[in-house]
């Protein structure tokens, strides 16, 4: 073997090992009790897995434990196989748990006339930092067709009126199934979803709100903020529920302002906050870093 061949071998061998290793994430929640981490570690060790990342939160107030463990190795396993083999441990500790593979989550984005969040999601997706795979854009306006199609995304126009709302929501659910979307992102989609649609998408739909909830609801939020002389502009990314803008919060972003900011400047700053909060929420959800806990969330960053 020549020196060049030897150098090539030392470079490519680790890459081959990396490709062969399967990567998974385990998330679980249960009542605090002794032996949980040991049981998880032993389970993974006995099957030849290495723990790549481990985070847990012991909530002493609610007496619950939340855990996220990323691990790799042992070709041939699937999440379903792992869940079946883990069932005995889960039953012993009364766990709510899931195993996840590394297949990117498929994300369908909904948008109306404001395009800053959509533009940011596309930018991060194309740069490989979003954590999920954008698959389509749905809108009740034609405003951002060019933006979506320039990124190579299907753009589906679904107009909504009071008389067609039920049909539009039925069509949306069909699109979710057609594009096999794991997550629906309301990137400033300015339509209130029905209770039935919220329930159908529970746990797999994220919304962005232009304030720290529940402040400045309704129309012209940045004019309301200006009238109140705000010193902080914020945004809240949360899961969609039937309770309007009151779903479990995933992320909030804040930017300091002062009396010199008029409504237009506040809007520009607010759009930055919205884009940041939403992209983080989408990435953390796609990486299985968000665990629902009643009306709140645990986020392992």
UniProtKB/TrEMBL annotation:
Residues 105-282 form the Formyl transferase N-terminal domain. Pfam families: Formyl_trans_N (PF00551). Its EC number is 3.5.1.10. It comes from the Bacteria. InterPro entries: ACT-like_dom_sf, Formyl-FH4-Hydrolase_C, Formyl_transf_N, Formyl_transf_N_sf, PurU, PurU_ACT. It is an enzyme of class 3 (hydrolase). Catalyzes the hydrolysis of 10-formyltetrahydrofolate (formyl-FH4) to formate and tetrahydrofolate (FH4). PANTHER family: FORMYLTETRAHYDROFOLATE DEFORMYLASE, FORMYLTETRAHYDROFOLATE DEFORMYLASE 2, MITOCHONDRIAL. This is Formyltetrahydrofolate deformylase. It comes from Arthrobacter liuii. The gene is purU.
């Amino acid at each position: 073997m020549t020196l060049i061949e030897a150098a090539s071998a030392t470079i490519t061998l680790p890459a081959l090992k990396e490709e062969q290793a399967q990567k998974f994430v385990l998330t679980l929640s249960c009542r605090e009790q002794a032996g949980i981490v040991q049981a998880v570690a032993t389970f993974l060790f006995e099957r030849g897995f290495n723990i790549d990342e481990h985070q847990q939160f012991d909530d002493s107030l609610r007496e619950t434990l939340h855990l996220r463990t990323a691990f790799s190795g042992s070709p041939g396993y699937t999440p379903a196989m792992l869940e079946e083999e883990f069932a005995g441990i889960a039953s012993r500790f009364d766990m709510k748990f899931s195993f996840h593979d590394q297949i990117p989550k498929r994300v369908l984005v909904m948008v109306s006339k404001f395009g800053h969040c959509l533009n940011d999601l596309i930018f991060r997706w194309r740069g490989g930092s979003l954590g999920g795979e954008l698959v389509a854009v749905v809108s009740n306006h034609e405003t951002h067709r060019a933006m979506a199609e320039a990124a190579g995304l299907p753009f589906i126009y679904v107009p909504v009126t009071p008389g067609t709302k039920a049909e539009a929501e039925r069509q949306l659910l069909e699109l979710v199934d057609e594009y096999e979307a794991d997550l629906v992102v309301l990137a400033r989609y300015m339509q209130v979803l029905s209770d039935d649609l919220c329930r159908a998408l529970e746990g797999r739909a994220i919304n962005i709100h232009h304030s720290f909830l529940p402040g400045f609801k309704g129309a012209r939020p940045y004019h309301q903020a200006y009238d109140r002389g705000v010193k902080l502009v914020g945004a809240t990314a949360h899961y969609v529920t039937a309770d309007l803008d009151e779903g479990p919060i995933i992320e909030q972003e804040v930017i300091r302002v002062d009396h010199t900011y008029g409504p237009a400047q506040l809007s520009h700053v607010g759009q930055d906050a919205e884009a940041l909060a939403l992209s983080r929420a989408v990435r953390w959800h796609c990486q299985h870093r968000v665990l629902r806990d009643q009306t709140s969330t645990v986020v392992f960053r």
